[in-house]
Design brief:
- It contains five helices and ten strands; from the N terminus they run ββββββαααββββαα.
- It has 175 residues and is α+β, with helices and mostly antiparallel strands.
- It folds into two domains: 38 residues, no CATH class; 123 residues, no CATH class.
- Helix 1 crosses helix 2 and helix 4 packs across helix 5.
- The structure holds zinc ion (2 copies).
- One zinc ion binds next to strand 4.
Length: 175
């Protein structure tokens, strides 16, 4: 079945790439928005869970996987979740190049005709073009990982791993 490429679960934020990562609707089709841990047969697995409880749960996993201090992992998970459809009622689009949420008009890049881009942020995309058109995914990892490492207080090699995994969910870097 066509899963529409890799995307992030709109409940927990985890990347979904393989078919088995996707949750299921009541009719057995794959959910477009939610992962198998969060959503099965058209309903949330834990319907009463709050955004704080979900952030706590996911930050424990992040903290363990990527050696992020617990408090930083929780802050990060909470930030990620505040852009997801389950918690906001709408999906806030993320920049397809760096993943920054396009929450406000001034965050959006611009098309050649001056209109706002709905796909990319102002740091990545201006006047209908990428600011760094030749950037490869690996170069992007090298560029973003040190910021991530210092922001979250994690080892650089784990930050690279995390950024690499995250970038693979974004349209610009999908193979
Ligand atoms: Zn999920
Ligand atoms: Zn961007």
């Amino acid at each position: 079945m066509e899963t529409g490429g890799i995307r992030s679960c709109q409940s927990c934020g985890m990347p979904m790439s393989a078919e088995e990562h996707f949750g299921t609707e009541a009719d057995g089709t794959l959910s477009k928005d939610y992962c198998a841990n969060c959503y099965q047969s058209g309903a949330f697995v834990e319907p009463g869970i709050t955004i704080d409880e979900m952030a706590e749960k996911c930050s424990a996993i992040l903290s363990q996987l990527f050696c992020i201090p617990a408090a930083n992992a929780e802050r990060f998970a909470r930030e990620q979740m505040s852009c997801l459809k389950r918690w906001t009622g709408r999906e806030i689009p993320a920049c397809g190049s760096c993943g920054m949420p396009l929450a406000r008009d001034e965050d959006a890049g611009t098309e050649a005709d001056g209109s706002l881009s709905t796909n990319y942020c102002t740091y990545c995309y201006r006047d209908g073009r990428f600011v760094e058109p030749g950037l490869t995914r690996e170069q992007a990892v090298e560029q973003y990982a040190p910021m991530m490492a210092s922001n979250l207080g994690m080892p650089l090699d784990r930050a690279k791993e995390m950024v690499r995994q995250y970038l693979s969910t974004l349209p610009r870097w999908r193979e």
